Amino acid sequence: MFIDQAEIEVKSGKGGDGMVHFHREKYVPRGGPDGGDGGRGGDVILEVRPTLNTLAAFRHTACYVAGDGKGGGTNDKTGRSADDLIVPVPPGTVVYDAASGGLIGDLTTPGQRLTVCKGGRGGRGNPRFKSSTNQAPRTAENGAPGEEKRLRLELKLIADIGIVGVPNAGKSTLLSVLTNAKPKIAAYPFTTLEPNLGVAEVDDETTVVLADIPGLIEGASQGAGLGFEFLRHIQRTRVLVHLLDGLSLDPLGDYAQTNAEMALFDPRIRQKPQIVAVNKADQPEVQERWKELKTKFKKQKVDVVLISALARTGVRELLLEAAERLAEAPPLEDVTPELPVYRPVEDPRAFTIVREPDGWRVKSAAIERAAEMTPWNQDGSVRRFQKLMERLGVDDALKKAGAQEGDVVRIGGYELEYQE
Question: Closest by alpha carbon to 241, among 313, 296, 299, 317?
Fold first, then answer.
């Protein structure tokens, strides 16, 4: 089954905890601090695999969690860093932050990687806090927590040539004739419920990838019919074959309608080279009206060709012309500019104070992360966190907000007692 949208949860690994330890060795009475740093948590990385062409795998696994780093050891031994978690995705995957809608990245090239969640750094061991005035620090850090995000993935198929048109124009038949694809074909509208890909051989050295896009009806750009879900796939193509039904009551109207819906969805689609072909030349009615149709299109300054996908008449010539247009078309990067990468801006000094029924809450991603990294069973680490709160102005802000001696102050998952 073809799946072109998915939502997944991703979480990077937590860093390993730093260690508080002092060197003990015979005849070395003052060995000094030697607690090791923690290892780095694993990143979550999306990697393009050219063998994939759907997001169906994400229907079965919706949560991806990287491993945590190991804690530091004695004798300045650094904990082992966790392996990164590689999540394979097909070419053409666009990644969004599901919560904010911000664009994170656009993955098109085989082997391309995008780090969506960075692993937490390892906590520092007590030698890191040694100074001239503190020769035996009993302070260390817990590892930094990992990042957690909900991602929305959208797949835009990457094909050289897209076959577009109204339902039942014969797009799937043309694809099956030109390539090795075997799409479902029937004599009723909306046979194609999902895009199909096929590879056509132009000559011994040249192949092109074609995509059969489900039929577009009026209002497709606003969600009517099946077109809304699949219009995005046209954005990745470089040349369009616009196939018209020769038995339609108004082929010129069908041509205008399909172009209008594509332009409403993305105005850049109008810039793509188009080859217009009238299908079903094997039908006598089409042969009779061909001269009239050609004249009507010529008045609109549109060149058209007559083919029969079923009888394979003119299809080879159509493929060769499409290949010529493809050779002249601008690279995909020029047609679809590189999308900006969404990076949320975080001010490490920013925080807000919220009054709760039974206390206060300090909201700040950076301060909450600092609380996570504080070993609360170590007096030195607690004093260090207190100095951080004073330096950032949290104590003064709580006092101005009306905090009283003994009030509960919550930071992340921790409850502290306010003292002046």
Answer: 317
